[in-house]
Amino acid sequence: MILTVTPNPSLDRTYEVPSLDRGEVVRAAGERVDPGGKGVNVSRAVAAAGRRTVAVLPLGGAPGRLVAELLHAQGIEVAPVPVEGATRSNIALAEPDGTLTKINAPGPELSAAERESLLETVREHARGASWIACCGSLPRGLAPSWYADLVARAHAAGVRIALDTSGPALLAALRERPDVVKPNAEELAEAVGRPLATVGDAFKAAEELRALGAGTVLASLGADGQLLVEASGAWFADARVDSVRSNVGAGDSSLAGLLVAGGTGPRALASAVAHGAAAVQLPGSVMPTPADLDPAAVTVTADVPHDRVLTEPVS
């Protein structure tokens, strides 16, 4: 069982639009409503892969009730933490060329009692979990050290933990030595405080995160592929993608792919890339099933292409 923790979940509405023209009436060609938040998406991807998952998340108001209903409909066990404020609603506008415009609401502020209830709910459901995946931004009311506390509690319970967050929350959590961290290129550059222009730059930054406490670093480099750096070695992987429809949740799908394949080594990296490549070819934040995966399109190598220039360098 993979337990996910989403401190700031959302109700996500994705509209497919022919183009985004500021100040004009834009008619959507398609619409989806999905439960959102990085940890929620990891649970959705794990469930789509046929594995058991439990989603821990604070939920409030009518949007929170709908999030729970949508997750139950997808076969996901929900461990809700009732909160006073309403769960946030986000909007994504997807254009045919793959451009995505997102409007993310801040979400409710959690009280001291709600913060403690969230931690206690994680503790109650951690028994028997093979992984805990803690993902996304922290809502108002949670200090940057909250993830660090959660990592420490997970390790005290003997459970491996994967972390997908950024900024001060990521840096604070590294001191508790999370087993896996999954930054994208922008988050990796922010963590080390310098730009990334090549795969080699990303590799060096990943090594720095390991020196600060991360066990394994899965770095998502967008269209350029993914990099896995851990104590036993480093691997680079990319995949053929015929068309990009929406990249919402693609990184979360990659993390799920890594964890369901064990969370370490080249086989897990191949699974991560296959899941991410499949996700970007699906509408909205639809998570791929095994039938959507194309393992033959994935290339994994231990010969990391350090000199390869990133398609979208991070300044």
Automatic annotation (TrEMBL):
One of its GO terms (biological process) is carbohydrate catabolic process. Residues 16-290 form the Carbohydrate kinase PfkB domain. The keyword Cell inner membrane does not apply. It holds the Pfam family PfkB. One of its GO terms (molecular function) is ATP binding. The keyword Iron does not apply. It comes from the Bacteria. Transmembrane segments: none annotated. Keywords: ATP-binding, Kinase, Nucleotide-binding, Transferase. CDD domains: FruK_PfkB_like (cd01164). InterPro entries: 1-PFruKinase (IPR022463), PfkB_dom (IPR011611), Ribokinase-like (IPR029056), Tagatose/fructose_Pkinase (IPR017583). GO terms for cellular component: cytosol. NCBIfam families: 1-PFK, pfkB. PANTHER family: 1-PHOSPHOFRUCTOKINASE, 1-PHOSPHOFRUCTOKINASE-RELATED. Belongs to the carbohydrate kinase PfkB family. This is 1-phosphofructokinase.
